[in-house]
Write a structure and sequence with these properties.
Helices cover about 55% and strands about 10% of the residues. It is an alpha/beta fold. The protein has one domain (about 1-205): Rossmann fold, CATH 3.40.50. It has a five-stranded parallel sheet, sandwiched between helices. The longest helix is centred in the last third of the chain and has 17 residues, at about 155-170. The chain starts with a strand and ends with a helix. Bound molecules: cytidine-5'-monophosphate. Cytidine-5'-monophosphate binds near residues 163 and 167.
Length: about 210
């Protein structure tokens, strides 16, 4: 079973993908982590993010067993990730890794922005998880302040809107629901309710 989970920042897609992976016993790949790790490599090597060739080189050189989980979760890494993710050469450099993971014999679950549309157009189940920008910004702001980041809610809301517009507006693999994706709006759902709804969607697809 190949499951694709897409959606914007802080929609709940990562939490839902992890829960589905546990429930159905599937390996899970957080593809955003690949773009975030590329972003950190670009920052550390002082690569100009407009230099597509150098950024793609950083993506190809990624050691996915050595990703620094704390560093890739910062707002700085997220903002740079969405810039390098707009570069077709970076997306191409990360394609094979994601596709190989998706084709694991026992099945797999991937979450990101273009899984249902580009990486796994042949997925058995496609979920598009979304929520309104204010709710997503509030979730993200709580996460960041819990980590000790003094950022204001308004700044996080502005960053969320900026990231949404970059991810949906780029020419290559823009964020959008696949035509055959099932939409799951988590704006007014608790985490548990959102996970339960996602499990039902996958079970319905299995029984169809
Ligand atoms: O999901 P996450 O917030 O970790 O992703 C960081 C950024 O990486 C996104 O804003 C997006 O620009 C990019 N991304 C992407 N395609 C994916 C996963 C993430 O373009 N499949």
């Amino acid at each position: 079973m190949m499951i694709a989970v897409d959606g914007p920042l802080a929609s709940g897609k990562g939490t839902i993908a992890k829960a589905l992976a546990r429930h159905f016993g599937l390996p899970h790949l957080d593809t955003g982590a690949l773009y975030r790790a590329t972003a950190i490599a670009v920052i550390d090597a002082k690569i100009d993010p407009a230099d597509a060739g150098a950024a793609a080189g950083a993506a190809r050189a990624l050691d996915i067993t050595a990703i620094d989980e704390d560093r890739i979760r910062t707002a700085e890494a997220g903002a740079m990730a969405s810039r390098v993710a707009a570069l077709p050469a970076v997306r191409a450099a990360l394609y094979d890794l994601q596709r190989e993971f998706a084709l694991r014999p026992g099945g797999a679950i991937l979450d990101g922005r273009d899984i249902g549309t580009v990486i796994c157009p042949d997925a058995d189940v496609k979920l598009y998880v979304t929520a309104n920008a204010e709710t997503r910004a509030d979730r993200r702001w709580r996460e960041l302040t819990a980590q000790g980041d003094p950022i204001s809610y308004q700044t996080v809301l502005d960053q969320t809107r900026e990231r949404d517009s970059r991810d949906t507006g780029r020419a290559d693999a823009p964020l959008r629901p696949a035509d055959d994706a099932t939409l799951l709006d988590t704006s007014s759902l608790s985490i548990d309710a959102a996970i339960a709804a996602a499990i039902r969607i996958v079970e319905n697809a299995q029984n169809a």
